[in-house]
Amino acid sequence: MGANFRSDNVAGADPAILRAVAAASSGPAMPYGNDEITKRLQARFDDIFETRTAVFPVATGTAANALALAAAVPPWGAIVCHTDSHVLLDECNAPEFYTAGARLMPLQGEHGKIAPKALDAALKAAPPGVHHAQPAAVSITQLSEAGTAYAPDHVEALGRIARRRGLILHMDGARFANALVGLGCAPADVTWRAGVDALSFGATKNGALAAEAIVVFRKDLAQSLGYRRKRAGHLFSKMRFLSVQLEAYLEGGRWLRNARHANRQAKRIAAGLGRIAGVEIVHPVQGNEVFAQMPARLAAALEKAGFALEPWAGAPARPLRRLVAAFNTRPGDVDALVAAARRAAS
């Protein structure tokens, strides 16, 4: 039976994180984030990002994105994002809801990324005045929805444009660790040093049970987030169980090790499938996602063999499938997938 490559969300939790959750359950702890684990977490994020941060653990990426944007975008504002972005397509209008009505302004861009020139042109073309939504934020996804990574200089170029026009730059870092490993840079270099004001720091896709964090690099953005988090139902009474997941995730570089393994397996998937006649890898593989266009009969044969691939797009004769490697993807499952694809193609 084949393996499930539809998403890194299909993976379970890292055993070390499970052990940390169990250990945190012994004995009492102060509620609502006043526990020792949550207090330690703030210092840990400051150390990782080499600056003072404000950290707000939440349970979902949707909450992290929507609340981070709500802290900076007024109801009459607009959020510039990619046409394929999660905040636009996959969050059931949560950003609009928590900003009390702000509009999302989609921009197209090659391989899932917004180009600086396109952003500059869109902002110049945005009409002023009370009759129109006013751009207030730019949101980029790391990794992008095409599995590609924004390099520090790319982020910096977007950040300069945003600052020049008084906009904040938000990064949806659902796969931040995978991007970081692929880029080979420090967390600070692709966030606040490059102009990012707020980061949705993802952990669930990379080994946590349910733990994300809003990491804010600007004090003024942090002022209302405590209230917004409470109002949205994400101020957990037993916050230690969110915080300990993040602490264990970061402990000893576990987050980067997990991401490195997932990225390595994705490269192996792409290398194996890419050598098969009729298969095209349509985006650069810069993290743990592979987008493979293949003949319909090949996709059907793999699915019949038990391999779960995520339908993405493409013509019926040559569908596009997304394959995602996780922190615990077994190399043997990758080998089996490639071998099955070779048999089906021949």
What does this protein look like?
It is a single chain. The protein has 2 domains: 14-253, Aspartate Aminotransferase, domain 2; 254-345, Aspartate Aminotransferase, domain 1. The strands form 2 sheets. Strands 1-7-6-5-4-2-3 form a 7-stranded mixed β-sheet, with helices on both faces. Strands 8-9-11-10 form a 4-stranded antiparallel β-sheet, with helices on one face. It has 346 residues and is an alpha/beta fold. 41% of the residues lie in helices and 17% in strands. The protein has helices at 15-24, 36-49, 61-70, 86-89, 94-98, 116-125, 152-164, 176-183, 219-222, 225-231, 240-250, 254-274, 296-304, 331-345, and strands at 54-58, 77-82, 103-107, 134-141, 168-173, 198-202, 212-216, 280-281, 289-293, 310-315, 318-324.
